[in-house]
Amino acid sequence: MQERVKIFTFVSGHGETVVEPPHEDRINEWLSMAKARLVHVSQSESERAAAGHHVTVCVWYVPEPISAAHA
Predict the structure, then answer these.
(1) Which of 14, 34, 52, 61 is the most buried (most CB within 10 A)?
(2) Single pTM value for the model
(3) What is the DSSP letter of 20?
């Protein structure tokens, strides 16, 4: 099986979501460097008492084969 998963977790302030710039920037940075084909993306949120929201984003992907030039 070649499929892999990258998990991003954040504890955010009350009312903040994954679309806030710091979270989005971190995910976009990883995506710009990943040599892969995206397969699936999921997001879940849960409220933490007195701590805001816990946000998890999972990115399933298949890595590109390593070419002979990079081996």
Answers:
(1) 61
(2) 0.74
(3) S
